[in-house]
């Protein structure tokens, strides 16, 4: 059976909905929904990028859903437990962040994207709490949240809420809440992932092991420095390179079912090109335009026009980044951009217009290939601040 790119996109959207009810993560949504079709002969994706990631992968990142609770741990063993409200508006958000290693810093953040009610209004299962408001909450005006940042206070918070079903704050119509389903399981997972089980400082499964026994933070991969400066392309050069790629790679664009230029809207106005190195330019061919973001196919093109190759930058190993129907996850880049001064290629895909879910990635050009520099994702919509998504990949840069 032949699976078209649009069918792949539908499968991708379906996988996201399934992920909200299971522990198996799925690729985050995008508008328009990548990925694109496999490339045709002669336009093979950059072949050496996955090997570059495997060489520095170290700890594999994890993105899991325990009922209503999201856990994200990156390649440096930094872990975050995240609960969001329903998917209709900016509701209550609970975040627990823990750095790796003995004495790894902890931070609990509770609030909303809008006006956060005072801790005095905290309730467990709709019952007013006297112990929770008594914790040493600190107001973080920049994050519009209430914060606990000492191990003792966070441990006490966990002990108070671990057996409850919901946590809420606010009065009347201003009340906001989150479900605590899966919260305890998520905490145990982080304890195990960071090798804290049965230590005195474990979040949930505490014991007599000394915290000094906890595995130290792993070394993060290092990427090359920025490339030498190059002259910017002129507007005429940008148009010339983009039109040439549209002609020579027409079969690839058709395979990805890219939107054709129309009289009402000429999608070519969103094409772009940037200087990559002395022999190549990076060309972005606009493929789809949605309500609030667009996607592009990316090509490395010889300046003399002799050759072009499609670029599909690498995904982080693990992290629930799966392939759908054999198409690479980053076959299309959303809101794609390249900054020649830093050699950084970027992708930003919002799950919905609010921007409270989605994914973001950056890659660094090393003169031969693009290496993964950062990746963050939140696949559960429901009130997080726009773009405030947990990290799954970072480097030492």
Give a written overview of the molecule.
The protein is an alpha+beta fold. It folds into two domains: 5-57 and 222-393, no CATH class; 77-213, Sandwich (Immunoglobulin-like). It is built from six helices and 21 strands. The chain has helices spanning 5-19, 49-56, 151-161, 183-193, 235-248, 250-255, and strands spanning 62-66, 69-73, 79-84, 93-98, 106-111, 123-124, 127-128, 138-140, 145-148, 166-169, 176-179, 272-275, 280-289, 294-302, 308-310, 333-334, 337-339, 344-350, 358-365, 370-378, 391-393. The strands form four sheets. It has a seven-stranded antiparallel beta sheet with strand order 1-2-3-4-5-9-8. Strands 12, 13, 14, 15 and 16 form a five-stranded antiparallel beta sheet that branches. The protein has a five-stranded antiparallel beta sheet with strand order 17-18-19-20-21, with helices on one face. The longest helix is centred in the first third of the chain and has 15 residues, at 5-19. The protein is elongated. The model is unreliable at 1-57 and 321-327 (pLDDT under 50).
């Amino acid at each position: 059976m032949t699976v078209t790119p649009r069918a792949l996109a539908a499968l991708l959207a379906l996988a996201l909905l399934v992920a909200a009810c299971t522990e198996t993560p799925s690729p985050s949504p995008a508008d328009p929904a990548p990925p694109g079709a496999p490339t045709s002969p002669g336009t093979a994706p950059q072949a050496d990028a996955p090997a570059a990631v495997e060489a520095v992968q170290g700890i594999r990142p994890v993105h899991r859903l325990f009922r209503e609770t999201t856990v994200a741990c990156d390649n440096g063993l930094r872990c975050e437990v995240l609960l969001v409200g329903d998917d209709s508006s900016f509701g209550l958000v609970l975040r627990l962040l823990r750095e790796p290693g003995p004495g790894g810093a902890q931070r609990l953040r509770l609030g909303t994207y809008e006006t956060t009610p005072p801790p005095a209004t905290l309730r467990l299962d709709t019952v007013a709490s006297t112990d929770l408001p008594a914790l040493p909450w600190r107001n973080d005006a920049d994050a519009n949240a209430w914060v606990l940042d000492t191990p003792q206070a966070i441990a006490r918070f966990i002990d108070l809420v671990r057996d409850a079903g919901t946590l809420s704050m606010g009065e009347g119509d201003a009340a906001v809440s989150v479900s605590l389903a899966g919260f305890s399981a998520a905490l145990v997972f982080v304890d195990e992932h960071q090798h804290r089980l049965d230590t005195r400082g474990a979040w949930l499964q505490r014991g007599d092991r000394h915290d000094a026994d906890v595995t130290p933070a792993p070394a993060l991969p290092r990427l090359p420095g920025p490339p030498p400066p190059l002259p910017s392309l002129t507007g005429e050069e940008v148009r010339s390179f983009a039109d040439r790629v549209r002609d020579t790679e027409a079969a690839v664009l058709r395979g990805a079912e890219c939107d054709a230029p129309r009289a009402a809207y000429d999608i070519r106005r969103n094409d772009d090109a940037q200087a990559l190195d002395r022999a190549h330019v990076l060309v972005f061919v606009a493929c789809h335009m949605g309500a609030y973001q667009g996607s592009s196919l990316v090509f490395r093109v010889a300046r003399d026009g002799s050759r072009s190759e499609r670029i599909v930058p690498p995904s982080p190993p693990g992290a629930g980044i799966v392939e759908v129907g054999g198409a690479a996850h980053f076959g299309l880049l959303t809101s794609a951009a390249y900054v020649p001064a830093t050699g950084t290629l970027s992708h930003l895909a919002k799950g919905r217009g609010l921007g409270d879910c989605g994914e973001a990635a950056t890659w660094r050009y090393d003169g031969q290939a693009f290496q993964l520099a950062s990746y963050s994702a939140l696949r559960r919509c429901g009130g997080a601040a726009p773009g405030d998504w947990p990290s799954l990949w970072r480097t030492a840069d």
